[in-house]
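During the no-cost extension, the postdoctoral fellow (Dr. R.K.) reprocessed legacy sequence entries with the updated structure-token encoder. One reprocessed record is reproduced below for audit purposes.
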Amino acid sequence: MLAAAAAVVLIASMFLEWYTLDLPERIEDADANLPTFNAFEGLERADVAIVVAAGLAILIAALVVARILADSPAPGIAMVLVSLFALAVVLYRGVLSPPGLVLFGVGLEMKVSFGWFVSLVAAVVMVVGGLLTYLSGPHLEFEGGEAGSSPQEQSTDGGRGPLS
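Re-encoded structure tokens follow.
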């Protein structure tokens, strides 16, 4: 449920102010009414990827609450992967590749605003919620032994324990 709530906050944060223009230093009128952009205005296709990832997180949370695939680690793993994808897209669009704007032949940079920080926190909480979903449910079991068994309890002499 934590990841689903964070996914709702992530979608809502996309309507907040994500980017503002960063004026060059040679422009001294800092009181100018600068345009701001929300995620839907400032992102090209990344906004669709974020909304789809958040929607999938809500769907997976509904599956977990409905106890569908309750004996499988798949919902927990899927939640972690979807959440990590959303976090990666938010980080990419805010840190590595914020959009720019060309006005009258002058390239202007954008800086991130409040909405981007809200979405970053929401994406991190989605990842934490995904990890908690996985940790509270069934885990992957590998062929070498049971999940949670220590190497001392595993034996190589035909499956007998250390004292048998």
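The chain has five helices and four strands. The first strand starts at residue 17 and ends at 22. The remaining legacy entries will be reprocessed before the final report is submitted.
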